[in-house]
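Problem statement: downstream parser choked on a complex file, so we are re-checking the raw output for the magnesium ion run. The parser issue turned out to be on our end (a line-ending mismatch), but while we're here, posting the original submission so the record is complete.
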Amino acid sequence: MGIQETQYDGGAPARTPEAGTGVVAIGLARSFGTVRAVEAMDFTARPGEVTALIGPNGSGKTTLLLMLSSLLAPDSGSISICGINPVDDPRAARARLGWMPDTLGVWEELTVHEILAMMGRLYGASKADAAARAHELLKLVKLDEFASRPARVLSRGQQQKLSLARALVNDPQVLLLDEPASGLDPGARIELRTLLRELAGRGRTVVVSSHVLAELDEMADRAVFVAAGRTVSEQRVDDAGTRGRRYAIEALDREALTDALEHAGIEFTLPAGTRRAAAVVLLGSEAEAAALLRQLVAAGVAVVAFAPAAGILEESYLRAVTTSSDPSTRPTPAEEPRP
Amino acid sequence: MSTSTTTRRPDDEGRGGERRSGSALGFWAGAGTVFQLESRQRMRSRGWYVMLAVWFVVTALVAGLAAWTAGSEEGFGQVMFELVIGFVLFFGLLVAPALSANTITGDRAGGTLAILQNTLLTPGQILCGKWLAAWVSSLAFLLVSVPMIIWAMTYGDVYLPAVPVLVLLTAVELGIACAIGVGISARSARPLFAIVASYLVVALLGLGTVIIYGLSFQLVKGTAMASEQIWPDDPWDDVQYNDQGEAVDAHGEVIEDQEAYFAEIEEKAVMNYDGQDFTCGKSLSRITVYHTERNTWLLAANPFVVVADAAPVKPRAAADDYYGEGPMEAVSSIVRQSQRGAAAMDPCLDGVKQPVVDETDLAGTAPLWPLGLGVQVVLAAGLLESGRRRLRTPVKKLARGSRLA
Ligand SMILES: Nc1ncnc2c1ncn2[C@@H]1O[C@H](COP(=O)(O)OP(=O)(O)O)[C@@H](O)[C@H]1O
Ligand SMILES: [Mg+2]
């Protein structure tokens, strides 16, 4: 796996879906009173792909998704959902999009099936169609055994699944999910991933926001990084491509390890705040990694661990947020560069 | 998870976009679904049934207590009926804001409003569905009071033409109170604010109008010249008595058949009596009058006035026959009296004889309730419209400190 990165320079997104498909947002800004929640965001999501929206808490992900989902009007900038401007024609946009909010709202006294059936009817489906669709969706998210229970008894994870099913009620072309995986157990996360991949496989545009990077690694085709209300970078997660991945190396003797790395002429950092004698190096390819390991072992360094330092998106995330101007979004632990 | 279950309908592919676009959800289909969402939730909460049961017990107590006080007095059915109506209206106005003012702020707080707004529903459909749901639930309170109304009707003297009018207008007033609550709810960010504000507006109609009417008396105060009333001779005045208390004739002779004589006088007195048969004296004195014909309209928007004023009144044998007058009729006659204003306050204004009118005679006074109902409808519609604006999406201006989701 590798990453192909496009750093933003404020212009239009590098890859724009064909007119009339997916999600394209350019130059979005939105403030609430004096709080500038979204300052300058460009966002593109293509049909057939899962696009991850990644950023720290308070970076404006939810605000961006609210604008994309036609609920919030941007102060400036333009949005296109399947070629429709949601500010001009919100109803037409809504017919094509499904939105899962990060706050879970449920009608507590209604049963799980009723909620989905009612939602279906709010998209104009007939009573019978809506009921059938509700059954289908409950099977899809594995909530069918809870169909006739009141929504208030569901656990958080189950409510999350219900919320996801609700977002799918109108079989949307564009699916906007705000932190869909929070509260899900590992099994359900894998199911979510499979479902989203399949939806993308059927040509849907899927947008997933999160601040938990590990859960996006396997599911996203592309990632858009935001920090402090701005798009920081946009990148494609590819099977092949340019490399650049950090490896954490642990050894019994720290001195020996650093000496050997200096000798090999490889730049490294020693992450502060860990007890371990570990060094982090940036390597261009897996072949380079194998070569370095061989070299270290040959040099007599007692290597106990040699592995990628973080998930592929975490890599880019850290790079993205450290280069952004806002100091509050800098990652911790801080890294102290060494020669 | 498998997506194979998400089967697509055959016609889906080709015109998928068009099929679900804007116009696919009819107004009543959408409002009806919102109505169902609301009502089902309410019908499943225990508190709702507790409230209805308490209501039933309290109205039964009021009716029972009234019946017990009156014993088996005849002509009491009308009083009891109007008492139940007045009571249902009073407590209905207390319940309606509670039922309606939280419908939208509650959804806002619970995160379900944004979900509704993200469907094909228009703000009008959301408001309409929620309003109808609140109204229908407030009508349940009227329905629970029906046994008491039937009880009153068993007394047999209830004036039937008034029954449907009183019941219908009570229902309309509850609908207006619910519309006020829903409109304010759509406008407000916080549930507590919406509930308090709705109560205040309903109280403004119910109590505020009366208070303002009372205060406005200072503004309609005036003076008028009045003279005393002079009544024609009363046959009894001419009867003369001797020292023994016996009636005597013009010559001082004791009249033989005293009883027949008294009966003759009495007959003459009754025959001659006429409430209008007086003249006004020539000497005028300054008195204070209130031109209530100018400020009675302030009472128009009062829900009790609207309901009472709209109801037809049982024709009475005599002007001063108050027997069997219920509370609603009393409200109505007070208002009509007030409408007549200063002219009705003194029979001899400016030395000119004023016609004495029967209090329950509606002739000469215009009904006030159409004005009142009109004011209420305009107020409720205004609040609903401003609520509708707040529900429009995409949202441009968000209330301070509130989030959409
Ligand atoms: N309705 C609002 N009123 C005021 N500030 C808001 C509102 N919504 C969001 N914000 C602020 O905007 C910033 C971005 O919020 P949000 O989009 O929710 O971030 P994220 O979803 O990335 O965690 C935060 O600082 C938040 O406090
Ligand atoms: Mg968020």
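For whoever reads this later: The CA atoms of residues 37 and 129 of chain B lie 9 Å apart.
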